[in-house]
Amino acid sequence: MTKELEQKFAKELEQHQNIIHKVCRSYTNNEAAHKDLFQEITIQLWKAYPKFRGESKFSTWMYRVAFNTAISLFRKKKRNVETTQIYDNLKELEYHDYDDSTDKQLKLLYDAIYSLNDIEKALALMYLEDKSYKEISKTLGISEVNARVKMNRTKTKLKNILNP
Fold it and tell me: At 24, is the secondary structure helix, strand, or coil?
């Protein structure tokens, strides 16, 4: 990877790292697991970045890689993480802790999202990010109609969880 490409990746990653935090928060239930998953998603993004063609927004591509990494890692239930060399630009990337403790409603929402299945979690997070059904369907590899149907079911399920 060229120095210019490394710098571009580091800038994009730092700008959009809250996407990774949101995915991590939905698929983990403690800080250590959150940090491990954050690191694994970052590594997978780094490995895949040279293949990013820019046909979609960086954030859409980032969601897809993050969701796929989280889902596959936790479905397998094995935590063998392959290490990879971190280049100069990534060494300087500042990790920002994600603190959701100040907003109790947000914590309740994330707890409810955590209880959903993998696809429902992805749908809920992208919906909260105001992603269009077109972007959601592209990211998840399903039709727009299917995304709408699944989203309505997920909203109903979340309402039932939050208002028993």
Answer: helix
What number of other Cβ atoms are within 10 A of residue 134's Cβ? 10
Q: Shortest CA distance to 138 belongs to which of 63, 46, 50?
A: 63
Distance separating alpha carbons of residues 25 and 18, to the nearest angstrom: 10
Q: How many CB atoms lie within 10 A of CB 46?
A: 20
pTM of the model: 0.58
Per-residue pLDDT of the chain (164 residues; tens, 9 = 90+): 678 888 888 888 888 888 898 888 888 888 888 899 999 999 999 998 888 888 888 888 998 899 888 888 776 654 455 555 555 555 566 666 666 555 677 778 888 888 888 889 888 988 888 889 998 888 888 899 999 999 999 999 999 998 88
Query: What is d(CA 21, CA 96) in angstroms, rounded to the nearest whole number?
Result: 9
